[in-house]
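Lab notes, practical 5.
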Amino acid sequence: MTHRHGIDVLRRRSSKAGRGQAAFEGLRFFLRVGEQRLHTRSFVAESVCAARSIIEAVEQRNTTRMRVVKVILARQREWFEHGPQHLKPMPMVEVAEMLGIHVATVSRAVSEKWAQSPRGLVPLRGFFSLGTEN
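Output from the prediction step:
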């Protein structure tokens, strides 16, 4: 029932006997519809807010991962150019300090992540020495 249709029904009922009761029922109907609309709007607004938060979190993770990868590329350049024998020790703690983030963030950023290189597909964790230790 549309808003306009509800008003028409209310007008027809109010012209008959018992119009006070009909008006009351019509008012209750419109209040219920209004409450449903408010509930729906609130639900949609909360859902959009939650979706935006998820999108921002994913974007932040991607940004952090790219920052870590840039450090890997800069620090392990010789590995990329000359091969595995030129891998330099690089503790996660050092990268975390360079980027101003927690070492656990660096660890999560490279955990189970791989990069395509001229030497094939390589795990990002493989560029670090001794895991998260100094």
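Observations recorded by the TA: DSSP finds five helices and two strands in the chain. The chain has a mean pLDDT of 84.
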